[in-house]
Amino acid sequence: KGNKPLMISTWNHGFGANAAGWEILEKGGSSLDAVEAGVRVPEADPNERSVGYGGLPDRDGKVTLDACIMNHEYECGAVAFIEDIMHPISVARLVMEKTPHAMIVGEGAKQFALDQGFKEENLLTEKSKKDWEEWLKKSEYKPVINIENHDTIGALAIDAKGHIAGACTTSGAAYKMHGRVGDSPLIGAGLFVDGEIGAACATGLGEAVIRTAGSAMVVEHMRNGKSPAEACEMAVQRIMHTHKNKMENLQVGFLAINKDGEYGGFSIRNGFNFAVVDTEKGNRMEDAEFKIK
Ligand code: SD4
C-alpha cells in the first residue's frame, strides 16, 4: 500500500497540477519534483486569479506571492511577499536546497531569485488590473469564500519510495494590505510534512489557519492515529470553535495524506473540492466533506 504513488491537490486547478505531477510520479520520480512541477501549472496560468501570474493584486495594485515546499526529511523552504517572479515555489525550493535558511521574504527573496537566474516579469494582467480598479471604487475589504472555485493551490504527494512531500503557493487574499502574508508560505500553517507520518495543506482564509497552526495540527492528529479525513475534520472543528463569533464568510479547507497512501479532505463550508491521482483510478475530482451547507 505504502509505496503506491499518490498525489492530491486543492480545487479545480488541482487537476492540471496533478496531471503534471503524475508524469513524474508514474516514472518513479520523486514526490518533491511532482509537487513542484504540479503547482507550477496554475502559477503560470493567467486565468488562475489566486495563484502566481494573473493573481489578484493587493490594495495597492501589487501582485505579491507566497509559497513554501517541504520534503520527507523535515527540510523546507519558503518565500513570502515576493514580487515579479512567476514561480515562487521554485524559489522556495532553492531556499531549501541552497541556503541555510527556511524563509526569505520581500525584496530579499526577489533578489535571491534573480541571483538564481529567475526572470523579472510583470505578473499583473490587464484583467486583474481592471478588477482591482473596479474594487478601488468602493475599497471594501471582504474575504470571499470559494473564489470562483479557485484559491491557493496546495499539493501533497507520496512517491514509489514512500517519500512524502508538499507544496503550497498563492497570490494570497485579493486586495489584502500591502505586505500581508497569509498561511500559505508558513510551514505548519499552510503546509506541513512529517515524512514518518503524513502531510497536510490548507486553503481559505489564511488568518484563521495561522491562528490555529492548521496543517501542523492535522499532521499531529494523524500521528495520534486519526485518518487523514478525520484529522482534517478535527482541525476544521478547532477553527470553528476558536472563531465561533466570527464565522461570517469564513471558509477553510484542509487536505491530508498519510504514509499508508490514505487521503482525505474537509472544509468548514460546502464547495471545497480537490483532485486525486493514483494508478488505480487515474486523475479525478472529489468533493471534500464539510460542516456547513
Ligand atoms: C491566504 N490561504 O493567503 C491563502 C489564500 C487566500 O482567502 O487568500 N484565501 O490566506
Question: Can you put this structure into words, describing what you see?
Answer:
By secondary structure, the chain is α+β, with helices and mostly antiparallel strands. The chain has 8 helices and 13 strands. Helix content is 31%, strand content 26%. The strands form 2 sheets. Strands 4-3-2-6-5-1-11-12 form an 8-stranded mixed β-sheet. Strands 7-8-9-10-13 form a 5-stranded mixed β-sheet. The radius of gyration is 17 Å and the shape is globular. The model has no long low-confidence stretch (mean pLDDT 95). The structure holds N-hydroxy-L-asparagine. N-hydroxy-L-asparagine (SD4) binds next to strand 8.
Name the features.
alpha+beta, 5-stranded mixed β-sheet, 8 helices, 31% helix, globular, binds N-hydroxy-L-asparagine
Which percent range fits the helix content? Answer: 25-40%
Q: Strand-residue fraction?
A: 25-35%
Biggest sheet statistics? 8 strands, mixed
Structural class: alpha+beta
Please mark out the parts with pLDDT under 50 across 5 or more consecutive residues, or reply none: none
Tally of helical runs: 8
Computed over alpha carbons, the radius of gyration is 17 Å
The overall pLDDT, averaged over residues, is: 95
Spatial order of the strands in the main sheet?
Answer: 4-3-2-6-5-1-11-12
* Strand/helix succession: EHHEEHEHHEEEEHHHEEEEE
Distance between the termini: 34 Å
The small-molecule ligands in this entry are: N-hydroxy-L-asparagine
Count of individual beta strands: 13
Given the C-alpha coordinates, what overall shape results?
globular
